[in-house]
Amino acid sequence: MVTITDKAKNRIEQIMQEESYDANYFVRVAVESGGCSGLSYKLNFDNEEKKGDQFCEDKGVKICLDIKSYLYLAGTELDYSDGLGGKGFEFHNPNASRTCACGESFSV
């Protein structure tokens, strides 16, 4: 299961409102090959379920992961930062053995 912080929840709700996404949309979180550490995070909004998708919900936000990503992201917390260090979503992944300095890629 992936959890989210209150800041991430608020930002997700803001984006959904700005983009006029209805209740059929959910947050799709995935892992792709690439990045300086070997694997990178991907986050977007979707309204189409794919075969093998795994769903969870936290703080009223529906989160979707494909089966491969689920194995890498189980226990991950999604946060949002708007501080001086930069704006954006951050992944706190307990499965990552190494992350790059920018936090956008990891390895296990």
How is this structure best described in words?
InterPro entries: ATAP (IPR016092), ATAP_core_dom (IPR000361), Fe-S_cluster_asmbl/transfer (IPR050322), FeS_cluster_insertion_CS (IPR017870), HesB-like_dom_sf (IPR035903). GO terms for molecular function: 2 iron, 2 sulfur cluster binding. The mean pLDDT is 87. It contains two helices and nine strands. The strands form two sheets. It has a six-stranded mixed sheet with strand order 4-5-2-3-9-8. A three-stranded mixed sheet has the order 1-6-7. It has one domain (3-99): HesB-like domain (Hypothetical Protein Aq_1857, Chain: A), CATH 2.60.300. A hairpin with a 2-residue loop joins β4 (54-58) and β5 (61-65). The chain has helices spanning 6-18, 67-73; strands at 3-4, 26-33, 39-46, 54-58, 61-65, 77-83, 86-92, 98-99, 105-107. Helix content is 19%, strand content 44%. The protein is globular and about 35 Å long.
